[in-house]
UniProtKB/TrEMBL annotation:
PROSITE patterns documented for this protein: SAM_OMT_II (PS51683)
Name this polypeptide is given: O-methyltransferase C-terminal domain-containing protein
Keywords, comma-separated and alphabetical: Methyltransferase, S-adenosyl-L-methionine, Transferase
InterPro entries, alphabetized: COMT-like, COMT_C, SAM-dependent_MTases_sf
Keyword Lyase recorded: no
Amino acid sequence: MGMNIWTYLEGNPDQSQLFNEGMAGETRLLTKTLIEDCRDTFEGLDSLVDIGGGNGTTIKAIYEAFPHIKCTLYDLPHVIASSHDHPNVKKVPGDMFKSVPSAQAMLLKLILHDWTDEECVNILKKCREAIPKETGKLIIVDVALEEKSQHELTKTRLILDIDMLVNTGGRERTADDWETLLKRAGFRSHKIRPIRAIQSVIEAFP
Ligand SMILES: C[S@@+](CC[C@H](N)C(=O)[O-])C[C@H]1O[C@@H](n2cnc3c(N)ncnc32)[C@H](O)[C@@H]1O
């Protein structure tokens, strides 16, 4: 079609609505685990931006579990325009390749697997520049692929890899791939935590 999926969705509001509701459906499953398994990831934060946060389902759930966090939803203007309102979630439209709002922490949930390594390094650098060096944190929720693992979710993770290749031009990544990307973007350390989901939680420090 000569355009990426995000430009296509911008010009097709019905498809965009369907896509955002689909992502929110996945989120309802994933966020429960994310919040229950990773309380310590969020507890110490004072502010958090959900980059590419879709219709706001994830950030709303995080705010409700951790009401001390100042929460911001950030996504493309047409997605923000049709996102849910919440009295305690600020909505900011924009393009993460140009800039992202500043906060103590950034959440990139199911974002980086949509993009090539070069594009990911650009997004990661923007996030690193928007968080404080001493106390800042980047929280990535994405697959950490172990291609040869006998784990019951390995095939699903591999199918997602094909899905990303076909639909977005992105890919799923192994622990080594994550290390390479995060180092290239200037992050000093990171840790990967498996959760009860297809995805893992990767915390990276500037
Ligand atoms: C796969 S969805 C993930 C949505 C949400 N994070 C979740 O986990 O349900 C990718 C999101 O990235 C957003 N996005 C794509 N390009 C973007 C850009 N340049 N700037 C900001 N957001 C973007 C899309 O609009 C979409 O909401």
